[in-house]
Fold each of these.
Amino acid sequence: MTVPYTLTRVGVLMTPEPGNDLEAEGVLNPATGHTPDGTLYLLPRLVAAGNVSRVGLAEVELKDGVPVGVRRDGVVLAPDEGWERGLNNAGVEDPRVTWIPALDTHVMTYVAYGPLGPKPALAVSRDLRDWRRLGPLHFEYQPDLDTDLNLFPNKDTVFFPEPVTGPDGQPAYAMLHRPMWDLGWFRDGEGVHLPAGVTDDRPGIWVSFVPVAEVDKDVRNLVHLRHHRLVAMSQYPFEELKIGAGPAPLRVPEGWLVIHHGVTGEQPKGFDPTTQKVSYTAGALLLDAADVTKVIDRTTEPLLVPETEQERVGTVGNVVFPTAIEEIDGVRYVFYGMADAAIGVARLDRLA
């Protein structure tokens, strides 16, 4: 089996609005969703001066069914909570929104840039406008890993849109995530702490689960994750530095399609994006429909690489960073960050 999907550029969807202080350092890495009336909205990361991020809301403008622009509609999430702010930093970053029909709810995973660096968090909404924070994610202790996943910075978190079979054989909601094992940024000399059985210190894609029965009792249980498993590590040259999940996994005939990013280049320690000399490209994984911890195929070459001026020049040059997929009139579109400064859209096609 190969991964029979392609990405083709459509255009630039959103760029920073001149004079808008909330967008002074870029608009990027959006989530998407539909309001109850069916209108498609973008939820972009808006970056103000000082790298302070908020999540905005913008209606997607269509021309002949193709996304061509946006109409801004305010801010829906800001770093208002103490755990989303440090003394010299703040932000709610890189939202991923999954509509979960079984819950009749939009589930937003995002990065809270707080006192201990980037930590994953969760919020829920029925209408995309009013979001209720469920708080930071909590990874249940798992003895066989010989570590506590809550110790580590974590990014690229996103839920599957429907229940899957968990490692214990029970129906569960599953979430992809990407822990980072180097604690030297936090305590000088502390270095890398790998879980038991993991020998590669590069950040890779993991999955964790929440039993459906627990979420049915109380949606707040979505933050309590367990049965942590490594799904995929860097394998090909375009992923040499690290990989991370992008949009919510898409159910396709072959299984679950995960559009991911692969990173090459040089990334200094810390979380200042402007110090990075990297290239972000987009690839894809296919996960087994019966066991989402199992990769059944993956792209050996990227599906999309930075080529246009908007993708090559920006806050962090040479970046395409896919974060959302939507279907419009039978055509699927991938929304992605461009050089950490603008937002583009590409068409996702399945090869015949």
Note: The chain has a mean pLDDT of 96.
Amino acid sequence: MDTAERTENTGEEATGRRRWNRLRLPRWSRRARRVRRITLGVLFALLLPLLAAEVTLRVNYTGDPAEGARTRDRDALWLGHAWVDGRRTDADVTALVRRLRDTGVRDLYVHAGPLEHDGTLPKSAYPRARWLIDGLRQKAPHVRVQAWLGDEVAPEKPYAMHLERPATRAAVVASTRQILAAGFAGAHFDLEPLHSGDRDYLALLDSLHRVTRAHGAVLSVAAHQIDPLPGFHSFWGTVTGHPKWWSQAYFGQVARRVDQIAVMSYDTMQPMPSLYGGYVAQQTSLALEATPDSTDLLMGLPFYHENRFGHWARAETVPAAVRGVRLGLSRTDADRPAFGVALYVDFAATEADWTAYERDWVR
């Protein structure tokens, strides 16, 4: 047998052995291989867009912000419940005023709730509100003290507040009249988790704004983040049961119904400061595009240091957030006056947080 014949026969024998081996493979083994291939394909299809999105965020963090992209003296600070329940003293008020001096903070969101699930607010929740308001009016008359009112909401939290019930919405409006009568300069609402497109929330805001306008007061809300990709809230809601984001269109509908909207631009699941800063830059641009000039837009800064799912303290830092805010502002609407940052939250803030805010945003 010559070489060509031996080669041909050897090839036929090898092909025959492969066919025989395939035939001998158990069905479960062939099925397992198919499952692995399908699983790898699905993972690749999911990870490729995610990788592309992260690269985009990193690129979004590059460049230099405009020099004028700094405080407009319209910033805000969330304050904990200790300021109205008797735990704080006159010395604390003096120290707070000293802290806020030479910053851009104009609004204080003081936790005066939470609201009951039926929308009511016990007056026992804020027994020292008048003391705080009078003290700040005397020592820092340029600062507005707003009542921070919040609750969990249905349908994601079925045991909590049901905004689809007219009686509940009416009770929230009555609670707002109540806190304005107590001396607060405005009402700041943080209702979570609110799903994008919730019409009952919009109806509530319409009713609330009529009340605050009649009292010459401010209506302010804490807002969810905007879809980083079109329709992402729907995808995430299907996968996790928690949509988390709002569409840009819905964000605009909310922004047009209030005097002030503060984006909760933290808890972003980003693992690195550069990715988090790029994400904040993107959120700032999206929010600026959707918010009318008549509404104050504030971007949240993380003045806290928890480590849990969705939030890495090493990534979500004040310097990264401020740089992201300045980049987004510079690229989208650098001269917008009705803009600021909101600091969350006073009782968890460190000296490093305050230093970064003052160095990078105020000065």
Note: DSSP finds eleven helices and eight strands in the chain.
Amino acid sequence: MRNRITEMFDIEVPIFGFTHKPEVAIEVTNAGGMGALAASYYEPDELERILTDMDEKTNGRPYCIDVLFANKVGQVVPMSQRLSALPKEHLDFVEKVLDEAGIPPLPPEVETEMLREKPPGHGHTEEGVLEVLEVVVRHPQAKFVLSAMGAPPTYVVERLHRRGIVVGAMAGTAEHALKHVQSGVDVIVAQGSEAGGHTGTIASMVLWPEVVDAVAPVPVLAAGGVGSGRHIAAAFALGAEGVWCGTIWLGASESELSPGMRKRFIAARSQDAIQRKYDTGKPLRGLRSKWTDAWDAPGAPQPLPLAAQKLLVAPALKRLELANAIDYMGYMSGQIVGRIKDERPIRDIMEDMKSECLAVLKRLSAVPQ
């Protein structure tokens, strides 16, 4: 499994593990791959503590930082004013869903804290990402920065290159991949529509070779529907030089999910990972729930644009979380969720993926020419 990607980062296997939890990134890294921590959700001080801890626990191994250049920087308006500006129809609908589910209101101290926070999505603006990167460049083991949504500005790419950091970007079409390459990125992650989170509409089997051909000789990582060694071997066959996985770690004992949510993921079928706009205003693939069912029901309003929808649902999702309303709670999930059958340590998942991939490659190499 040695190739340009493993040589580029000095890792054992080209398996990249996307996660929102530092412990998962640490385990993937220590198992020979590269953990990729979603960093745009952290405040700089908190991220500094997290990366210091990751440095200590990964024994000099490199890791990746995932950021989002999703939103434009705009005027910061107090959250209370922004909430009052939302359509009454949408506010009433959300309140009706929560009332019917018996979800209590936010505790006053939580509501006050939410109103003090930066607008939802601040960490996904260029300004927010630059705050994150100021922390990242202080940690030499952070060898790879990937923009998961939106092309990184050329000046950001150049700044990271001067620090010896490899820069990547995620793409859902060959056209997007080409734009990323033109901005100077070193690696493309081709993400098929099967993936969790924000995705495009092209399936992995079609997308991966399209992107490989479009950006050659820039190396490509395959994402979307990857959760086994057979998937890794298929990615190699289609021209990718590594894989980017996210959903498969959510059933692991180290994942960020609560025990109740982990059970839901273990029980989920592939078709339960649905793509909707209800949480962010953009197509987002996540686990179906009573919350998504309410938005799918006749008479429900259409989702608002990105920033407004995130603002609308932020207090509601917090209320569901505090009430531990498992049936109403969702989480980003790709269609590979159907492969999660039990709770296992990440090291075991990694070992199974590696050994199955090598077995497939060995079997294929024995096929008569």
Note: The chain has a mean pLDDT of 92.
